[in-house]
Amino acid sequence: TDCSAYDTLVVGTLDIRGRPTERISRFLQGPGHDKPYAAFVTYGMPVWGPVSTWMCFREIARLSGRKPLATFSCPGLHPKYHTYRGHPSPADLERAYLFGVKVARRTQGQP
């Protein structure tokens, strides 16, 4: 994927046992992805999902060779176990909005 026209990338993936999807892993290791980026991860497993999500963020940073500007995670409907019905919730959407604000501020050099 040619990302040369973009100043900042936002990468999203499902959490697959503490790792991003294979497609996102290949993308992060591909040529020309040295731009600042933010990352978001969705998960479907209660209890383990929030822990596994942070493992996924660490793997994204390792694959890209640098830390993201910001991160965001959100529960989602698991296709097999049907957990987290009704998500994204209003609270999830608010957190997603704040994630976007943080990314915008950090791309402009603000904390």
Strand order across the biggest sheet? 1-2-3
Which percent bin holds the helix content?
A: 25-40%
Structural classification: alpha/beta
Biggest beta sheet attributes: 3 strands, parallel
Which percent range describes the beta-strand content? 15-25%
C-alpha termini separation: 29 Å
From the spread of the alpha carbons, the general shape counts as globular
Average pLDDT confidence is 91
| SSE ordering | EHEHEH
Catalogue the unreliable spans. Answer: none
Annotation field: number of helices: 3
* CA radius of gyration: 14 Å
Q: How many beta strands in the DSSP annotation?
A: 3
Q: SSE layout and pairings?
A:
Blueprint: E1 9-14, H1 22-29, E2 37-43, H2 48-64, E3 71-75, H3 90-107
Parallel strand pairs: 1-2, 2-3
Would you mind describing this structure in some detail?
The chain has 111 residues and is of the alpha/beta class. It is built from 3 helices and 3 strands. It has helices at residues 22-29, 48-64, 90-107; strands spanning 9-14, 37-43, 71-75. It has a 3-stranded parallel beta sheet with strand order 1-2-3, sandwiched between helices. It is globular, with a radius of gyration of 14 Å.
Short recap of the structure:
The protein is built from three helices and three strands; from the N terminus they run E-H-E-H-E-H. The longest helix is centred in the last third of the chain and has 18 residues, at 90-107. Helix content is 39%, strand content 16%.
